[in-house]
Design brief:
Helix content: 25-40%
Strand order of the largest sheet: 5-4-3-2-1-12-13-14
Radius of gyration: 25 Å
Structural class: alpha/beta
Strand content: 25-35%
């Protein structure tokens, strides 16, 4: 499989105008994660503001990453490990505050779950705190309370022309010490030198042993241009400004039209072949889920046949000798679920509907059973799978029928 990672901007890309992840978007992103592709949420938001979205998309179960502060931090969502961080020297805060206030601008920064600012009544700062579900705290002098090293500082003004002048001044005055750029017409961001999404993404790729060619990057803003240009495939949203679209390899629909899902369905899901499904990655990503807790491992997958193994031990065997019914059905549903996932079209999702099974013989402690799933019916609205479970000596232990409902994404 050529693409092993998808990097998504959040606002204007992953989220629609109501700032939610749609059902279609979630289903598509869950599907590619199940196929072994890592997700990275790359945002100007603080880590605190991205983490709920990461958990909604189950990056904590599937081993995804957060690239926050427009590149200031990288977090492994599954382990909570901080993989990369670059911060501003707090000794620079008095200068930044003095110059911004002299120009009549407001200033704020982030720390843990709080936004610190000199003006808590500024509509843009209020909106930023609400967007990230953070507390808003007004202080008389920012430099008096900032005894930490912030990942970035934000200068705020409705006077776009004056912000541009300050941006140009600081580009020369702070060169080598800090970088500045406007992320919105009313926001001037101040970050550590050489911090942007592309540079920080390259750090993550190096740590994971991946190449830029393995990456799809999707975004809508000026802050996304560097990663769009550096990725193996750069995708611009339909709602992006023309300068961003000009830098992309592919332009998808808008964020209100599930543009990310449409692009992924076309570029990845419609092209994937069963032989390319990385079973080792699926097994690794599921180790903290029920499948992993029961020791279930995929061993083979094709369009009409899926196989998996499960150990016979205290987790899966009843005291009097037969496999535990719940564990057996979980094994069968795991096999049938992957089978239907492979068979689904890009605009379809699979939902488990019915499972029934029969125990035929016992399994011995220490053995490993093998489940063989074969497709019995492949309809437009349902798939029916038969799953036979065998011991290591090919004795039939259980026979299960699983029905999966196939729905169109909305």
């Amino acid at each position: 499989m050529k693409y092993k990672m998808i990097v998504l901007d959040v606002d204007g890309t992953l989220l629609n105008k109501d700032r939610i992840v749609t059902a279609r978007m979630r289903a598509t992103l869950m599907k590619v994660q199940q196929m072994g592709i890592s997700l990275v949420l790359a945002s100007g938001r603080p880590t605190y503001g991205v983490l709920p979205l990461a958990k909604e998309l189950e990056l904590d179960r599937n081993g995804g990453y957060i690239l926050s502060y427009n590149g200031g931090q990288i977090i492994n969502v599954q382990t909570g490990e901080l993989l990369f961080e670059k911060r501003i020297n707090p000794e620079m805060i008095p200068y930044l505050e003095r110059k911004s206030r002299k120009a009549g601008f407001d200033i704020f920064t982030y720390h843990k779950d709080t936004v610190f600012t000199n003006n808590a009544s500024n509509e843009y700062i209020i909106r930023e705190a609400e967007l990230n579900d953070m507390h808003l705290r007004e202080v008389e002098n920012l430099s008096d309370v900032v005894d930490f090293s912030p990942c970035k500082c934000m200068i705020v003004s409705d006077d776009e022309e004056a912000l541009v002048e300050l941006e140009k001044h600081w580009e020369k005055r702070l060169a080598g010490e800090l970088d500045v750029f406007r992320s919105e017409t009313y926001f001037l961001e101040v970050v550590p030198p050489f911090i942007d999404k592309a540079n920080t993404l390259s750090v993550l790729l190096e740590k994971l042993g991946l190449e830029a060619g393995n990456v799809i990057a999707v975004g809508d803003g000026v802050c996304d241009v560097s990663m769009i240009q550096s990725a193996g495939l750069g995708v611009a949203m339909g709602n992006a400004q023309e300068s961003v679209k000009a830098c992309a390899d592919y332009v998808t629909l808008t964020n209100d039209e599930d543009g990310v899902a449409v692009a992924i369905e076309k570029i990845i899901i419609s092209e994937i072949r069963p032989a390319e499904i990385p079973l080792d990655k699926l097994n690794e990503s599921a180790k903290h889920a029920l499948m992993g807790n029961l020791g279930i491992q995929y061993t083979y997958a094709s369009e009409d046949r899926v196989e998996a193994t499960m150990p016979v031990d205290q987790r899966t065997r009843q005291p009097f000798g037969i496999l535990h019914g719940g564990a057996t059905l979980a094994l069968a549903e795991t096999v049938a679920g992957l089978g239907s996932l492979i068979l689904c079209k890009p605009d379809e999702i699979m939902v488990g509907m019915q499972v029934s099974g029969n125990h035929l013989s016992s399994a011995h402690e220490g053995d490993t059973v093998r489940a063989v799933g074969t497709i019995m019916h492949r309809g437009r609205s349902s798939h029916v799978w038969n799953i036979d479970v065998f011991t290591s000596t090919d004795k039939l232990v259980s026979s299960i029928r699983v029905v999966n409902s196939i729905l169109k994404k909305r």
